[in-house]
Amino acid sequence: MKKSDFNFDLPKELIAQHPCKTRTGSRLLALDKVTGKLQDLHFTDIVDFLKPGDLLVFNNTKVIPARLYGHKTTGGKVEVFIERLLNDHSAIVLFKSSKAIKLGTKIIFNNHSIRATAKKGMFYLIETVGDTSLSELMEEFGHMPLPPYIQRQDQSEDQERYQTVYAKEKGAVAAPTAGLHFDEELLTTLKQAGIETAFVTLHVGAGTFQPVKTDSIDDHIMHKEWLHVTQEVAEQVKRTKAQGHKVIAIGTTAVRCLETAACNGEIQAYQGDTNIFIYPGYQFKVVDSLLTNFHLPESTLIMLVSAKCGKENTLKAYQHAVEKKYRFFSYGDAMFISQFSQYPNLDIENK
């Protein structure tokens, strides 16, 4: 299977540069994973696809202000992008500067500084100098790390909107964007309707935006991301399945959490790195349905979506979304992948 099999034409004007006025104000494209049938809906219509006892699994990672602007002792400007926090005094980072950063180089932020101590590939290991902590640096100098396809500087609204309302565990450098559509009112509505919720953690890394560089997707090596699925969540998933209800992943990162934790067949507690690569042919062990945003052409994320509902159904849905002018990527609209026949009382034709 070739990466070009997952290509599609996307007009630049459909790439959302700002969030929708309200979190739940986005559009929702419903896709039947079996028949490929499509339905244009509003995001709040997702409640029509859920039954009491179904389990929504959210990623509660919290985006850190990972982009910082400093300078070398020579005065040269340096952009520091924190890829992964190791502790409050060391991290793995990417540098952007006019000249390559040498080991030992100090990057200065007013009265604070960091030093590059090691390098592997494009990444550097940095440590803070003196009493400086990375928490202090990010609080004072950090910017929200908007994705490269959002071609503007971060603004005050991004501090709230490029973050889910349930974000808790600090460590992501990109938001789990499917969750951006939920507000507190909708979460309360779901709870009152008997819909169960669970929270896993996957700290989304910058690697999520890295393109597939091999022609054959079998040759692609996935980036690693840290995740945590608790024993409580594992038991909740087992109980949901045993009672005949559905497990719905809110975003591809929740899929990666659940399927990694079930890599041996049955879901169990898991904490550590994952480089799971899900593409057509993969047999899902946990996830029944998926809520996700629209993804980049030829990306590992559109391949994951294709694994759930088929490549042809996926590309057909994306072509429909382009024709209907859905908004794409992080601040864009959403797609819900399910099986309509499981909801005999569902009347969405007239939505």
What's the layout of helices and strands?
Elements lengths: L26 E6 L5 E5 L12 E5 L1 E3 L3 E6 L4 E11 L2 E8 L8 E4 L2 E9 L2 E6 L5 H8 L14 H6 L7 E4 L11 H9 L3 E8 L21 E5 L1 H12 L4 E4 L1 H10 L8 E5 L14 E5 L6 H10 L1 H13 L10 E5 L13
Parallel strand pairs: 1-17, 3-12, 3-14, 4-11, 14-16
Antiparallel strand pairs: 1-2, 5-6, 5-8, 6-7, 7-10, 8-9, 9-10, 12-13, 13-15, 16-17
Helix pairs in contact: 6-7
Quick summary:
The chain has seven helices and 17 strands. The protein is α/β, with parallel strands linked by helices.
Overview of the structural elements:
The protein is an alpha/beta fold. The protein has 2 domains: 246 residues, QueA-like; 76 residues, Thrombin, subunit H (Beta Barrel), CATH 2.40.10. The strands form 3 sheets. A 9-stranded mixed β-sheet has the order 2-1-17-16-14-3-12-13-15. Strand 1 and strand 2 form a beta hairpin. It is globular and about 70 Å long. The two termini are 37 Å apart. The model has no long low-confidence stretch (mean pLDDT 95).
